[in-house]
Design a protein that fits this description.
Blueprint lengths: L28 H5 L12 H21 L27 E3 L5 H7 L1 H11 L16 H10 L16 H11 L4 E2 L11 H20 L5 E4 L3 H4 L1 E3 L6 E3 H7 L6 E6 H6 L4 H8 L3 E6 L1 E5 L2 E6 L8 H8 L5 E4 L9 H11 L4
Parallel strand pairs: 1-10, 2-3, 3-6, 6-7, 7-10
Antiparallel strand pairs: 4-5, 8-9
Helix pairs in contact: 2-4, 3-4, 5-6, 7-9, 11-12
């Protein structure tokens, strides 16, 4: 947990569980988080470097035996890797949510995964609680620096009582945004709770911004859009997400829009970005197959049903970071590589 002891059972709020009343969070996190060991990490990382090297060699050996990893998705708008320079989303704006590789990280450790991401071309990562493996902020910042990576945002704690410590941690790491895999307390289970959450986001965002870090963001799953209330003034039916947007201060609060979960809730993502683009500075680039009333089935970016061209076009000028994510990605570099190549090679 950023900013507090990772051994404290009262603060295991990672990635979207900032309160007991939070009704939306990554559906696999509970099963994954409980298996992650939050131990201390020695500052001398010789053994870890050898693990990272061994992991890379093992993956390379697998590639020799099984053939090359799948190429970037075939698309009329996709270019070969050799033709990608200067086109589409710049690498400096692409990040990856480390929750995608929670399973892989448990196998080989954070450093080995960071080594692979850096080799692919990533310049940014978005950690969640399990990414730190008990490291201090300075240790984690040093680890990122070794691989030429930055962490402009993370999914961590929005616990208001501990927010000063959280800010201190993220400032040392060098974050530009604060946030979680959900929102602040008390959540969106009632209209009153939703309005109180907006007030909490304003308080936390103002504290974060004035500390020299940056805005706080709220992140969505489906529920922020499928949960709807009547406006007490007009009677108009609005989603909890819209209510949060309308009742938060744009100086202090922004939004990280998860494209797949929004689409899975029936949202016209392009129209949403066009209407509220000035409030969406972070975009979760998540692809998949929509699945009726069941949850969407995630895929590598460019291999699902999401029509990325109009979304990326609408996002230009407002979105600062494009964060790829695939819940439960296989423990190989293929998802990260395919998704990175897709974004850097996609002309729209």
């Amino acid at each position: 947990m950023i900013g507090v002891s990772s051994r404290d059972p009262t603060v295991l709020e990672q990635h979207g569980r900032s309160a007991r009343t939070e009704i939306q969070y990554h559906f696999k996190e509970e099963a994954l988080i409980k298996d992650i060991h939050f131990g201390s990490v020695r500052s001398k990382r010789g053994p870890t470097r050898r693990l990272a090297a061994a992991a890379s060699l093992a993956i390379a050996a697998t590639a020799v035996l099984t053939g090359p990893a799948a190429a970037a998705p075939v698309s009329d708008n996709a270019n070969s890797a050799a033709d990608c320079a200067g086109k589409s989303v710049p690498a400096s704006k692409i990040s990856i949510q480390m929750f995608s590789y929670a399973g892989w990280t448990r196998q080989v450790g954070t450093e080995a995964v960071l080594a692979e991401l850096s080799e692919i071309g990533y310049q940014n990562v978005e950690p969640f609680g399990g990414t730190y493996e008990g490291r201090t902020a300075a240790e984690f910042a040093d680890l990122l620096g070794e691989y030429g990576l930055k962490a402009p945002a993370s999914h961590g704690s929005t616990n208001e009582a501990q927010f000063d410590a959280t800010i201190a941690y993220t400032k040392t790491v060098g974050q530009k945004y604060m946030g979680s895999g959900g929102s602040a307390s008390p959540g969106i289970s009632t209209l009153e709770d939703t309005l109180a959450t907006a007030e909490a986001l304003n308080r936390l965002g103002e504290k974060s911004k004035k500390s020299g870090t940056g805005k706080i963001f709220a992140y969505n799953h489906q529920g922020e859009f499928t949960t709807q209330y009547a406006d007490p003034q007009t009677g108009e039916i609005k989603s909890a997400w819209e209510i949060l947007v309308e009742n938060t201060d744009p100086r202090y609060v922004t939004f990280q829009l998860d494209v797949l979960w929004a689409a899975d809730a029936g949202v016209d993502v392009v129209s949403l970005i066009e209407e509220h683009g000035d409030r969406i500075e972070l975009l979760h680039i998540k692809d998949g197959f929509l699945n009726g009333n069941a949850r969407a089935i995630p895929t590598d970016v460019g291999e699902g049903e999401i029509d990325w061209a109009p979304i990326l076009d609408a996002a230009q000028g407002s979105v600062n970071y494009y964060v790829v994510e695939r819940d439960g990605a296989p423990a190989t570099r293929e998802f990260a590589e395919d998704s990175f190549n897709f974004l850097t090679c996609y002309s729209y």
